[in-house]
């Protein structure tokens, strides 16, 4: 029995590592494409916009207005695509500011409040990217599938772990009925990749959904020992 338990734990650890490696590979490819769009296409569009601005003003004003309008739309679209593929600037600005930007961009759709408790310390890039993705996925799901008017995000550092709680006041859901959906799968895969634990619960006043995540301070997986 002891040998079987050791083998089972080793298999579970192996599966978690496979998830981690898969997500890391996906993020690297997303980053490569996002940086290409952000740095290449975005910059080229900005340069074209500057050139148009310096054209002889005797040209057809309506045509120029139409071109400016299209250029502006293309710049916004390339930025949006880049942002959705990979949070390119997260490394420089950090998780908190990036989430605040997400909140500002969604402010016309839903009220989102972010509470970061005093003492929060910047995490390594992999963890912050996964947390941002989880928050992004959660808010997208709520906006698409719920009648919620509010989302709350709570982040706090503890000596041994970091706690993240995301909740809303929408219709909520039955976990067993929706756990196979891509949104839930994506969230749980990212949680697993951080070697974290989580729980889905009913939100306050028995409305909406609530996701509680605890991420160990040192989220790396231990070296797998041989079971031979």
UniProtKB/TrEMBL annotation:
Alphabetically ordered keywords of this record: Kinase, Transferase, Two-component regulatory system
EC number(s) reported in the record: 2.7.13.3
InterPro entries, per the entry: HATPase_C_sf, HATPase_dom, Sensor_HK_TwoCompSys
Recorded GO MF terms: kinase activity
UniProt cross-references to Pfam families, sorted A to Z: HATPase_c (PF02518)
Superkingdom of origin: Bacteria
Coiled-coil regions, chain positions: none
Domain (Histidine kinase/HSP90-like ATPase) ranges: 128-217
Catalyzed reactions per annotation: ATP + protein L-histidine = ADP + protein N-phospho-L-histidine
Gene3D superfamilies the record matches: 1.20.5.1930, Histidine kinase-like ATPase, C-terminal domain (3.30.565.10)
Record's protein name: histidine kinase
């Amino acid at each position: 029995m002891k040998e079987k338990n050791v083998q089972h734990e080793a298999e579970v650890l192996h599966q978690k590592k496979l998830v981690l490696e898969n997500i890391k590979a996906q993020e690297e490819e997303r980053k490569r494409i996002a940086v290409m769009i952000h740095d290449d296409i975005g910059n080229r569009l900005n340069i074209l916009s500057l050139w148009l601005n310096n054209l002889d003003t005797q040209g057809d004003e309506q045509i120029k207005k139409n071109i400016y309008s299209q250029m502006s739309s293309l710049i916004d679209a390339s930025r949006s695509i880049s942002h959705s593929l990979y949070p390119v600037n997260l490394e420089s600005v950090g998780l908190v500011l990036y989430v605040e930007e997400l909140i500002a961009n969604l402010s016309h759709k839903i009220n989102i409040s972010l509470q970061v408790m005093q003492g929060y310390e910047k995490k390594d890039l992999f963890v912050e990217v996964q947390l941002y993705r989880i928050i992004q996925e959660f808010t997208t799901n709520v906006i698409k599938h719920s009648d919620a008017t509010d989302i709350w995000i709570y982040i706090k550092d503890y000596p041994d772990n970091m706690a993240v709680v995301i909740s809303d006041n929408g219709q909520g859901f039955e976990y067993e009925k929706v756990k196979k959906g891509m949104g839930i799968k994506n969230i749980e895969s990212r949680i697993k990749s951080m070697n974290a634990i989580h729980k889905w619960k009913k939100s306050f006043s028995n409305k909406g959904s609530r996701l509680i995540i605890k991420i160990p301070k040192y989220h790396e997986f231990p070296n797998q020992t041989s079971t031979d």
